[in-house]
Amino acid sequence: MTPFGGVPAATLATDSQAGRAESSITAILQQLQRAILDQPDARTTTLRTLLVVMERSSFPALLLVFSMLLVSPLSAIPGATTVLGLTIAAILGQFLLGRQHAWLPAFLLDRPIQAARTLRALRRLDGPADWLERRLRRRLGWLFHPPLSKAPKLLAFMAALCAPLMEVIPASGTSVGAAITLFSAGLLARDGVFVLVGACLAAIMPVTLWLFLT
User: Fold this and answer.
1) Cα–Cα distance, 118 to 127 (Å, whole number)
2) pLDDT tens for residues 6-18?
3) By C-alpha distance, which of 176, 152, 42 is closest to 96?
4) Which of 42, 81, 131, 165 is a plausible cystine mate for 173, CB 3.0–4.6 Å?
């Protein structure tokens, strides 16, 4: 089965390879912006377009991009929190299972997104990406080895699954995105402090949702 539900070949890094980022966070964001600007249809884009750019990136890099989009103004579009949250959950689920490739269903990949709004959202992420890159460093290496390595992923996975229900709570989707952004940035840079902080914040989200709904 090919990655991304049909996007051409990509070998994504496994957990042991996750710390070797092939490009900086800001460079990845710039690549995504160029992909939107270069596409034939200037009005809409899709997750598939963005994922083609990311095809050789690690699972943590994929998580980071989509969680940052969840933090961005793009999440204000009705349904965007659900789509981005389910995308993150799908990637995390496969990461937990130890898959070599990420696969996503066509209904997520081909859902049209406003290109101009997505481009503006990506550009607004340049500042946060720079902030993250200046603070990340290798720490708490023991956190990246089994069995401890699975616990933070599971917490982030549970938080991402709650994203569709968080459409009814203002700014809650952004909170989930921020938690998973810290978590995935930590995974990418092998920074255990960021992983722990992000996972702990993610763990609060399902509890907050349950309290709100009950």
Assistant:
1) 16
2) 443 333 333 333 3
3) 152
4) 81
pTM (2 d.p.) = 0.78
76 three-state secondary structure: helix
- Termini Cα distance of the chain: 41
SS3 of 159-193 = HHHCHHHHHHCCCHHHHHHHHHHHHHHHHHHCEHH
42/93 Cα distance (integer angstroms): 33
Provide the 8-state DSSP code for 100.
S
Give CA–CA dist 177/74, Å, rounded.
12
What tokens does 28 get?
Answer: 């990845």
In eight-state DSSP terms, residue 79 is T
